Amino acid sequence: xxxxxxxxxxxxxAILAAALLLATTACxxxxxxxxxxxxxxxxxxxxxALPTGTEPGNPTALADLPVDQALTWMPTLTTFEAALRTSxxxxxxxxxxxTLLAPTDDAFAKKFSDDTWDTLMTRDHDKLRTLLxxxxxxxxxxxxxxAAAGTATTLDGVTLTVTRxxxxxxxxxxxxxxxxxxxxxGARIHLVNAVLxxxxxTADGSGHRAH
Amino acid sequence: xRRHRAVLIxxxxxxxxxxxxxxxxxxxxxxxxxTGLTVRQxxxxxxxxxxxxxxxxxxxxxxxxxDAAGTPTGTATIVGIWRPNRQINQESPTFADAGFNxxxxxxxxxxxxxxTTEQPYSEPVAGTTTAPWGNPDVPGExxxxxxxxxxxxxxxxxxxxxxxxxxxxxxxxxxxxVEIGRTVKNRPINMFVIxxxxxxxxxxxxxxxxxxxxxxxxxxxxxxxxxACLIMARQLAFSxxxxxxxxxxxxxxxxxxxxxxxxxxxxxxxxSTGQDLNRDYSLIRQPETAAYVNMVRxxxxxxxxxxxxYGNSRAGDLPMLPPRHQNVAQPIFDESMDMIEGxxxxxxxxxxxxxxxxxxxxxxxxxxxxETILRNTLGLKNVVNSLLELRSSGGQTRPDEGxxxxxxxxxxxxxxxxxxxxxxxxxxxxxxxxxxxxxxxTFQAANTGRLVFRGSxxxxxxxxxxxxxxxxxIDAPPADLILDNAPCAYRLTEEQYHGARTDGPTGAxxxxxxxxxxxxWKVIKVGDSYYVPLNQPERGLIPLLLDGQGVENLxxxxxxxxxxxxxxxxxxxxxxxxxxxxxxxxxxxxxxxxAALVTTGxxxxxxxxxxxxxxxxxxxxKITGPLRVTGTTDAVxxxxxxxxxxxxxxxxxxxxQPLLVGNTVNGPLACAGNTTAPTNLNISNTVTGPRxxxxxTL
Lengths: 211, 698
What we know:
By secondary structure, chain A is of the alpha+beta class. Chain A contains nine helices and seven strands, in the order αααααβαααβαβββββ. A seven-stranded mixed β-sheet of chain A has the order 2-1-7-6-5-4-3. Chain B is an alpha/beta fold. Chain B is built from 14 helices and 41 strands. In chain B, strands 24, 26, 28, 29, 31, 32, 34, 35, 37, 38 and 40 form an eleven-stranded parallel β-sheet that branches. Chain B has an eight-stranded mixed β-sheet with strand order 10-11-13-12-14-17-15-16, with helices on both faces. The two termini of chain B are 32 Å apart. At the A-B interface, helix 1, helix 4 and helix 7 of A face helix 3, helix 7 and helix 11 of B. Chain A: This is Uncaracterized surface protein containing fasciclin (FAS1) repeats.
């Protein structure tokens, strides 16, 4: 990979403004059925902490983006987004429709130490891909549909229970949906508050990572 | 770069002069009610100040979005908790509210609490917050980072960083962007070199301005400081504020936004090999850290900050820590402490930010003496500096940061405040910094006192409540990591010096020789051996890498002790490697071709003549009689000498700069025909006679 320094003068502001314009211009798309009125509504206790209304990255603005692009607009998914990108999994899968159970940054921080995570990201890519597959479900599945089915099989071959208690929908034993039903092109994204899969917890919970 | 247009400068001056403080209307206060609330807008934050209430245990800060007419457009939220340990002067409470979208309008109220009992709110004060810096209609000023454009939903990507950086480079005469290296994955590591009206043309010329350096992003998953650096680069490049012009007229600002571009792109702490780069600044196994150390050698910043984020939710807003390793010279430690406790604590109390020692409030086992950490490495390179942490979460005092954007903005704008304050500190304290640096370099070169391989200077606790009431652990050096009898030099074999190594990225592992060269240490080859004398400015760091007792060393070098101490009368002829310490020589000293002379604490009466020597490294030495060093092949270093008689440093053939640092010459000083021009490291020599040739300005 090579990243030559830009030698040609560019106006970054104009480029960014154009990108922003593109991202905030939501329109309907045959493959991503947006709800009536063209707005996407997401549900869950974390949604208020994410871009809302007309802010850049609001749910409606993401509905027509490819899923890898949509993930970059969710400020609490930086770990998951980078992991998917690093693994190359989405490109390799060629799924027509896919559902992502996306653990938040806090969920990853609770699960893995920095050392464990860096090892997964820099060396153990097979293990990383298996971990990520534990968060992917074939088809674009709304949360209500998954809850009604009661189970869901992830791409690592594991069948999870999906249980709904009150307003809370839980995958497996610990992962609650905290902001569900984001749309992207050919994809549904449900943010969850715990990492799925069999890898052991290595975070020590102190939060005292030395500088 | 291109020429500014005067009309644009005039226009932007008009637009940037907009600092206002708005106060609540005076009215009769209820018992326990906060009075005198004022709100002052700044870049990305608003400083609230109020009259303290007798008996208050803490204060709550409420913020409500309002329209131009003052009608609320959203819900009132408690965004801040003021506690007495936030600041050194609790009788003048302040709070920097941050996290809001810059440019939006709010009203604020403050109320005291007696334990948990809430008292009446103050009268409200409304204000429009300061929009992102730079007039959208002025070229250059109009640039925005991806982070700003996306309202902090996205961090600025690598390619957006390069485009933004190139645009600033293109549009500002004050900025030169240089690539100081490449990452393992070949991403460029860029540095802004910023001066007014233009930055000096060469690294040596920049070094002569005693630059200030900010390292913004070493851990890829700690991106808050980097966004502050990108914004600050734009401000420094285009602002017509007299403060900025004044700063840049007196020094050069060095900003490295991203040394860990691979880690940033993958959002990992380490680089693409998994190496934590802030455990690698001494060993410089990785190209990223080697690039930074190489930059420090060439540009010689005298002061620095190193940006991080910190997971301890009980910490202050801005944990900071000086270089603590006990081999760091006392004046560097003291001045770094003064930067933190003198400047940052004082300014934090004025502006409402909460700096504190790293580890503050139950910080655990952090902030110690590893020389692999940039804070300590820079201290061992005689750079006044501090670590900066941005508390990752809102913690107990900023309850509204569940919102990701609010949290990101508070962190970045607190970093921006710190870095701007760092530049103000540098501007105000440069004479003190330079004095501390000069004293430290001469202290180190004298090679006196014990060495420790690990262990920190204590950070004294202030009586609570105070930001400094809970410093990091003592971290005294254990007995088995103390060396009371420091050697004169380390001797390395050919295999140790040039041999292949395995500690580094596959296919790009550097030799000990390359790493020593990056650090800038003088090395003398005599016979088959490579000698690294300790009478050098980085004396505190050399043993940590070259001694077998070093905890994370490079090689197990052989300790070489002085070959002569005490009295010597009569001619002294040096063949091979000679080290004089605490010696008195009466008689002429001759250093033969291919030989090396190292001295400390020595008095020589008689001429000293080295012709074609391998190395001449003299420090803390008195010489009566002419001193002549010519034709040297490997290294020349003259530090803190007192010479009565002429000094001639000529025709030396070293590929590294001969050092003439802080000497007193009672006589003429002449330098001519040296392959590499000598430097004084910005520490002047006192010369009574004429200075000639390459030494004319030293």
